[in-house]
């Protein structure tokens, strides 16, 4: 048991968790003011990644239709298709859709919100209800 604990959650020394590098690349692109080349993404990432590694991750994200690319010189500059909030919301929705008990998942999610997040969610829901009510009354007029 001691050997397992010594290895930690990351497994092999220096290895990232699955999907962590893709998340890091997306975070670098979201933080940028515009499209970035592979070299610029590499410079924005922590550590000393090989250029080809960054290029591979960018290509994978492009193939998954998470990035668009524009010709820049002999290579490409990349930018995310969605902003970070839209991407995260889509992931949350996908996880919710994959569960067998949607109500239980939502109840657990809400029960674990901080007081501040609960307040924000309440405001968002109140605003959504007001807009939905306006839409319905506009259709009757």
Automatic annotation (TrEMBL):
Swiss-Prot/TrEMBL keywords: DNA-binding, Transcription, Transcription regulation
Organism lineage: Bacteria, Bacillati, Actinomycetota, Actinomycetes, Kitasatosporales
Gene3D superfamilies with a match to the protein in the record: 6.10.140.850, Winged helix-like DNA-binding domain superfamily/Winged helix DNA-binding domain
Coiled coil region boundaries: none
UniProt family annotation: Belongs to the BlaI transcriptional regulatory family.
Protein name: BlaI/MecI/CopY family transcriptional regulator
Pfam family, one: Penicillinase_R
């Amino acid at each position: 048991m001691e050997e397992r604990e010594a290895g930690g959650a990351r497994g092999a020394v220096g290895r990232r968790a699955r999907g962590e590098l893709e998340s890091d690349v997306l975070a670098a692109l979201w933080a940028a003011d515009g499209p970035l080349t592979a070299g610029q993404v590499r410079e924005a990432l922590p550590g000393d990644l090989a250029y080809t590694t960054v290029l591979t991750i960018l290509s994978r994200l492009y193939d998954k239709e998470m990035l668009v690319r524009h010709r820049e010189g002999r290579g490409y500059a990349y930018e995310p298709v969605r902003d970070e909030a839209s991407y995260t919301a889509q992931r949350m929705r996908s996880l919710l859709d994959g569960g067998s008990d949607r109500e239980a998942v939502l109840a657990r999610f809400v029960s674990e919100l901080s007081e501040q997040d609960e307040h924000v969610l309440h405001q968002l829901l109140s605003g959504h209800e007001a807009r939905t009510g306006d839409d319905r009354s506009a259709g009757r007029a």
